[in-house]
Specification:
This protein is mainly alpha-helical. The chain contains 14 helices and six strands. It has a two-stranded antiparallel ribbon with strand order 1-5. Strands 2-6 form a two-stranded antiparallel ribbon. Strands 3-4 form a two-stranded antiparallel ribbon. A hairpin with a 4-residue loop joins strand 3 and strand 4. It is globular and about 60 Å long. Pfam families: SusD-like (PF12741). It comes from Bacteroides salyersiae. Keywords: Lipoprotein, Signal. InterPro entries: SusD-like, TPR-like_helical_dom_sf.
């Protein structure tokens, strides 16, 4: 997660992921991250989560009925809750220091050398970090906890039959699901991506391979790009209503429009191409060229972030590093940054 002074990035679209996660004074490490409680309808839907029928025609009455049904059973507000949970938010609140530390700062940030923990003992959590590369096992599950929260918000929306009446909002939910899934597979490993996306909520699960997850995500990103690219062709009455729906759940773009989300999807595809270049350079080249051709983020207007200025909140790292004294910039990373001046 690329960090700036006043912005908390959710989509690092020009750099590799730099996530951040100790006081850790919750009752039992990980309890706040279970994310197994869902609100809304008790009925569990299983639909075509990754099908975006953006050519579907719908009447104003049909759209109103779909929104009424979604509000009762799979509220679109879950999209914003999922956005929060992707960066350490709990119970539909903005990202906080505890979950953020557990999800990112004590694992990938420390291991990758972006940050460093300046001490070894975490008495409230009963954790000891003997060295940068000696992971405490209880920390390893951190990324999975908030991913569980995220997919529990998004899967009911993606599988609800009425979301197909608003394919652009479904595309936004699917993009967030896939963004979180790409981080999950990188930080945590293989998981039941296909079944989670299909809203399966009970065992047995079949774990997808990392390669299959990556390819499944890219297939979705291509569909998302096509769907949002077609949005200007929709009727004006439809765009008026759907634009408002997006603004109600979008706290991470300045433009509040689908074009920024479309570029976010293509930028994620470009990042994934960079991730696989050592494994399959031909596939990486194909993905990268396709992403750039369709349009990636290339200006400040395309930036996707939680703005601390606008929300009136602090970045979780401020509390983790200043108040708790649990995180510092890695000296090696600092040297690299100074060399670029």
């Amino acid at each position: 997660m690329n960090m700036k002074k006043n912005n908390f990035f959710i989509a690092c679209i020009v750099m590799s992921l730099l996530g951040m996660q100790s006081c850790m004074d919750f009752d039992v490490p990980g309890d706040e991250l279970t994310g197994n409680t869902e609100e809304g309808s008790d009925e569990v839907y299983h639909g075509a989560a990754d099908i975006l029928d953006y050519h579907k025609e719908i009447s104003q009455e049909g759209l109103d009925l779909a929104l009424t049904n979604l509000a009762k059973e799979a509220p679109l507000g879950y999209i914003l809750s999922a956005t929060y949970s992707m960066r350490g938010g709990k119970e539909a609140t903005r990202p906080g220091a505890h979950a953020y530390q557990y999800q990112f700062n004590m694992s990938v940030d420390n291991y990758a050398g972006y940050m460093v923990v300046p001490h070894t003992d975490f008495p409230f959590a009963m954790i000891t970090l003997n060295s940068t590369y000696a992971f405490e096992q209880s920390v390893n599950a951190g990324p999975n906890g908030n991913y569980t929260l995220t997919k529990n918000y998004l899967s009911p929306i993606l599988n609800h039959p009425d979301i197909d009446s608003i394919p652009e909002m479904k595309a936004v939910a699917l993009l967030l699901f896939d963004y979180a899934s790409q981080e999950e597979v990188d930080l945590y490993g293989s998981f039941p991506y296909t079944q989670f996306k299909a809203n399966q909520q009970e065992h047995p699960y079949t774990y997808d391979s990392c390669e299959d997850i990556y390819k499944g995500i890219v297939d979705n990103l291509d569909s998302i790009n096509a769907c949002l690219k077609n949005y200007p062709n929709r009727p004006e009455w439809y765009k008026t209503k759907v634009n408002k729906l997006l603004k109600d759940v979008d706290e991470i773009t300045d433009t509040k429009d689908f074009e920024t989300w479309r570029k976010m999807g293509n930028s994620l595809k470009l990042r994934m191409a960079m991730h696989v270049v050592k494994r399959d350079k031909d596939l990486a080249k194909k993905w990268a060229e396709e992403a750039v051709m369709e349009g990636v983020a290339n200006s400040l207007e395309d930036e996707v972030s939680f703005s601390t200025d606008k929300s009136g909140t602090n970045h979780p790292l401020a509390e983790i590093s200043r108040s708790w004294g649990d995180s510092r910039l890695n000296a090696s990373f600092e040297t690299i940054l100074f060399s670029l001046k």
